[in-house]
Each structure stands twice: as structure tokens, then as C-alpha cells.
From TrEMBL:
<protein>
    <recommendedName>
        <fullName>Sugar phosphate transporter domain-containing protein</fullName>
    </recommendedName>
</protein>
<feature type="transmembrane region" description="Helical">
    <location>
        <begin position="37"/>
        <end position="57"/>
    </location>
</feature>
<dbReference type="GO" id="GO:0016020">
    <property type="term" value="C:membrane"/>
</dbReference>
<keyword id="KW-0812">Transmembrane</keyword>
<keyword id="KW-1133">Transmembrane helix</keyword>
<dbReference type="InterPro" id="IPR050186">
    <property type="entry name" value="TPT_transporter"/>
</dbReference>
<dbReference type="Pfam" id="PF03151">
    <property type="entry name" value="TPT"/>
</dbReference>
<feature type="domain" description="Sugar phosphate transporter">
    <location>
        <begin position="38"/>
        <end position="285"/>
    </location>
</feature>
<feature type="transmembrane region" description="Helical">
    <location>
        <begin position="241"/>
        <end position="262"/>
    </location>
</feature>
<feature type="transmembrane region" description="Helical">
    <location>
        <begin position="143"/>
        <end position="162"/>
    </location>
</feature>
<feature type="transmembrane region" description="Helical">
    <location>
        <begin position="216"/>
        <end position="234"/>
    </location>
</feature>
<dbReference type="InterPro" id="IPR037185">
    <property type="entry name" value="EmrE-like"/>
</dbReference>
<feature type="transmembrane region" description="Helical">
    <location>
        <begin position="183"/>
        <end position="204"/>
    </location>
</feature>
<keyword id="KW-0472">Membrane</keyword>
<dbReference type="InterPro" id="IPR004853">
    <property type="entry name" value="Sugar_P_trans_dom"/>
</dbReference>
<feature type="transmembrane region" description="Helical">
    <location>
        <begin position="268"/>
        <end position="286"/>
    </location>
</feature>
<feature type="transmembrane region" description="Helical">
    <location>
        <begin position="117"/>
        <end position="137"/>
    </location>
</feature>
Length: 373
């Protein structure tokens, strides 16, 4: 792995781990009452950071048509995740949030008509089994905390499915979705922040809490912006699978950090469930990437020969799966020539010199003249 790829993956893991730990601190250790205010500030920071580099049009009709449900599910996911962190340990929280593919499987089938592969289905079963085993071994089992985390995971998966649908229908990029969801979520979090205002002011009246607030806010905003950038940087530099593997590593590290910093009371059975859920999450990411890799158009076929492709090359010549580079070159060669050019048959004493294609060695079979020089 090159230096830039390693740096992008490390920045994603580090910023994500720091952001998760910081949010856990605010929710359960510091017990700051303004969760909506923090989420509002995070949204504003994202809007300002992304809006500084290009123009967005949040009030245009195509955007307004596709974004309402995406916005609501994202906002509910953020809010419930913050509440769930107050009542569950970080290892358990990571396990419960990893249930997202379980929800996504059913939602993707209902909304987009997509069916899971065998690998996806098996990994989802492993994730679900690991989650149940973890719950059985959790000495701090909290029904309310588990319910909030499960609802948050469901909203997260619904957000991802709706986001993919918006990308399919509205031609939106991933960066567009990050900006527009942050923009519209800020509208939702403004009234919620106003409802928390009295509790926040009373909390800040305590000695030293104002300075604590600003000391917390500075790294919180910076980490939020860095995490958004690092996520897309890691995906662009490596692959979605590498980002998913890095996310799995982040989950393992945050579980260890949560156990050391905030405590986690799991029996050996609970830790077995956590490990099983982690393995299932990795296998799910690998299965998804394998599907993307095998279904993507094989444009490498065009590079397997020395032709400059024409715009009228049949799409099937590039899209068909081929088993070797030689077969790929053959398919492209056939698409670049008229139908009456075929490979020379060595059993025939034909064609005469000059009747072979000068680059491919293909021969003309319609009785026509030689290839023009």
C-alpha cells in the first residue's frame, strides 16, 4: 500500500475513533444535555466546510423532491445514536449499530427490489447471532438503551437505502448527499435545540462548565469536518472495501477504548458474541465489494489491445465477462472491425499477402479486396 493510501486509511480510522469516543464522553461521562445543539453545530460545520469548495443548490426542485425522507431518517439516526450512547457501553453500542445490514436487506428488497447474495445472507445471519449472544453476556443490559440503538441502526440502514435511491433517481454524488442532509438536518435541529436551551443554560451555570463547553466544542467541530473529509479520501484513494475494513478496525479499537475509558461489563459469552458480530461485519463488506467488482463493466478489455476505441463500439464487447486478457482483446478486436473480418483459418491457404488486417491478423472472408494501406 502506498504512503497516501496508508495515510488516508489511518486518518479515517483515527478521526472516526476520536469522534466516537468524544461523542460517548459528551453523552455518558460529561452528560451534556444539549445533544440537538451539538448535532446542529456539527451540521453547520459540515455545510460550511463543503460549501467553501463548490456551489450547491439546496432549494432547487430536483433536490427538494428527493431529500425529505433522506433528511428525516438521517436526523433520527443521529439523535437516537446520541441517546443510545448514554445507556450502553461502547462495545455493545458498536455491536448493535452493526445490525444495519440486517435492516438494509429487507429495506433494499422493499424499496429497490434488490435481493442479497449467499455471502451477504450468511454474513447477516452471523451478525444477528453475534448480537443476540452479546446481549446474553451483557451484565449492564438496558432494555431502553438496546431499543434506542436498534432503532438508530434501523434508521441508519433506511437512510443508506433512501440515499442510494436518491443517487439513482436524482443523479446525486456522495458529497452532494452529505451536504444536503447536513443542510436540511440543521433546519430540523434548530427547534429541537431551542427546546433544550433552558437545560443547556442551567448546565452551563455550573462552575467551569462554560470553559469546558468551548474546550469540547473546538475538537468536536474539527473532528466532524475531518471525519467527513477522511471518509471520502479513504474511499477515493483505496476502495469501498478498504474503507469498510478500516471501519471494522475502528469498531474493534473503539470497543477496546470504550472498555478502558468508560468501562464495559461483558461475560466471556458476551465477548464471543462481539467477536462474531465483528467477523460478520467484515464478511458482509467483503461480499458487497465482491458483487460490485464482478458486476462492474470490464473496461480493462479495451486496454488489452492496441486499438483506439470508436464511439460506436458495441457495449456488450466491453461489458461481457471474459476469462482472460487474450479473450478480452479478441472481443474488442471483433467489435472494431466489420462483420466480414474474421481470424485467419490456418487450415486454408488463403488469404494472399495483403489481405490480412495489418494489426490484428484477421482475414477478409467476403471475397473483397485487400486491406487499404
Amino acid at each position: 500500500m502506498s504512503g497516501s493510501r496508508l495515510l488516508s486509511a489511518a486518518s479515517y480510522v483515527g478521526s472516526s475513533l476520536a469522534m466516537t469516543s468524544l461523542t460517548k464522553y459528551a453523552a455518558s461521562a460529561w452528560r451534556f444535555p444539549g445533544s440537538s445543539l451539538l448535532l446542529l453545530i456539527e451540521c453547520w460545520a459540515t455545510v460550511l466546510a463543503l460549501g467553501a469548495f463548490r456551489a450547491y443548490y439546496p432549494l432547487s426542485w430536483p433536490i427538494l423532491r428527493h431529500m425529505p425522507l433522506v433528511t428525516v431518517t438521517k436526523a433520527v439516526n443521529m439523535y437516537l445514536s446520541f441517546l443510545a450512547m448514554r445507556r450502553t457501553s461502547l462495545p455493545v453500542y458498536n455491536v448493535l449499530k452493526r445490525l444495519q445490514p440486517v435492516y438494509a436487506m429487507g429495506q433494499d428488497w422493499l424499496i429497490r427490489g434488490s435481493l442479497p447474495s449467499t455471502g451477504e445472507f450468511a454474513s447477516v445471519i452471523l451478525i444477528a447471532t453475534g448480537t443476540i449472544v452479546t446481549g446474553l453476556g451483557d451484565l449492564d443490559f438496558d432494555v431502553g438503551g438496546y431499543a434506542l440503538a436498534l432503532l438508530a441502526a434501523g434508521c441508519q440502514s433506511l437512510y443508506l437505502v433512501l440515499a442510494r435511491h436518491a443517487q439513482d433517481s436524482g443523479k446525486l454524488s456522495s458529497m452532494d448527499l452529505v451536504f444536503y442532509t447536513a443542510f436540511y438536518n440543521s433546519v430540523l435541529f434548530i427547534p429541537l435545540s431551542m427546546l433544550e436551551l433552558s437545560a443547556v443554560l442551567a448546565f452551563l451555570d455550573s462552575p467551569g462548565e462554560v470553559s469546558n463547553f468551548f474546550q469540547f466544542l473546538t475538537p468536536y467541530v474539527m473532528l466532524g469536518a475531518l471525519l467527513n473529509y477522511a471518509t471520502f479520501w479513504c474511499t477515493a484513494e483505496t476502495s469501498p472495501l478498504a474503507t469498510a475494513v478500516a471501519g471494522t478496525l475502528k469498531g474493534v479499537l473503539s470497543s477496546l477504548a470504550g472498555m478502558l475509558l468508560f468501562g464495559a461489563h461483558l461475560t466471556p459469552i458476551g465477548w464471543m458474541g462481539l467477536i462474531g458480530s465483528t467477523i460478520g461485519g467484515f464478511l458482509y463488506s467483503a461480499s458487497r465489494e465482491l458483487i460490485r467488482a464482478t458486476s462492474a463493466p470490464s473496461f480493462q478489455a479495451a486496454a488489452a489491445c492496441n486499438f483506439r476505441p470508436r464511439w460506436d463500439v458495441p457495449a456488450m464487447a466491453l461489458d461481457e465477462a471474459v476469462t482472460s486478457q487474450e479473450q478480452a482483446a479478441e472481443e474488442v478486436k471483433r467489435s472494431l472491425l466489420p462483420s466480414y473480418w474474421r481470424p485467419k483459418d490456418p487450415a486454408l491457404d488463403w488469404p494472399a499477402p495483403g489481405f490480412l488486417h495489418p494489426t490484428t491478423g484477421f482475414s477478409r472472408t467476403d471475397g473483397g479486396g485487400p486491406w487499404p494501406n
